[in-house]
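Quick one: structure tokens for this chain, please?
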Amino acid sequence: MKKLLLISIIFIGFSLTFAQTVQVDQNLLRQIVEILQKLIQQSPSYQPQPPIQKEIETLVPTPANLPKGIQPAIPESSANLTPEVIKPILPDENKEDDVIIQLNNLKITRIVKEPGIENTKAIFFVVRDIGWRCLMFETEESEKSLPCVLNLRKLIAFKELAIKITDDTILLQRNRQRAKLDDFNVGDKINVYGFMDRDNYGIEALIVRKISSAPIKEAKLRVISPNGGEIWPIDSYQKIRWVAPKDKTVSIYLKHYIPCLYTRPACLMPEPMPIIIAENITNAGEYQWQVGFQNKILEPGNYLIEIIGDQSKEADESDKPFQIVYTSSLTPQKPICIQVITPAYNPKNPSECKEFPTPCDVPEGWIKTSKCP
């Protein structure tokens, strides 16, 4: 049908062109046009078919198998950093396999001073930071540097490095003025130039330059004491201490400690109203409180101190509860001693024997006896 319509259209065009030059029967042409119109009306309308969509296979890249986090050079929780623990991570005496290296933008994570190792003033533990660079030099006198070989960069990328600071290490400020060891703190960023051991990647620093200091944390209101574990008898005088750098005055409250309110999830028990100890007092950093003086019905128990800055509206409370007790509960019961001559001797020196006026006067550790020889 499509071909027929196409032929008909071509025929009409040819006929119209031919009719302009040759005389043709007009009735015949009209009949042909009518026939073609009927054929067009009877033919189904053409609807374009949408293209067939092929399924696209999504390729998921294989995740890189990288180490998670930083591998510490020594355990962070090591209580006793003895020379035996630290020495294996420092460069050895053999310099033949060392690399002359410069590392830029390292962040100090720990500082160990006077580790008890010969010719070692301190050890800086560092990790790479944003923008870190690793450069190598052919000789110590060479001014030209080359990027560190890839395998060296990979091995130190996720490793906490140990930097040995000796008496010969030159310490510099950012402006290249001489610095002291105490000028370096955890969080500072440094550049290091020195020898790196190829075996354990420990560094003996020739030059350490401080690039930037650790950001200073903004001081906030903080309760110092009581901060947990104290025992305060009722009617005793105790000092409440705090720091509140942003406030001229503070308010102090005593809160009942209800354990379930400090667990996760917390219980639905309503918290009792705090007891006012002092309001709008001068921020002197300490306040002497006669325990329970403002509230004679104060019951013994576990409590927290809460301090609120009147200007900053910052608040802090004791980290852990402290105890308020009756005075009598702290008074030890003294033994009743009747005045009776009591002989006793020293077991460490049996020949040392004495007579004491009462049994209570016998020294601790001495042994009572019927009589001295």
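The chain has four helices and 19 strands.
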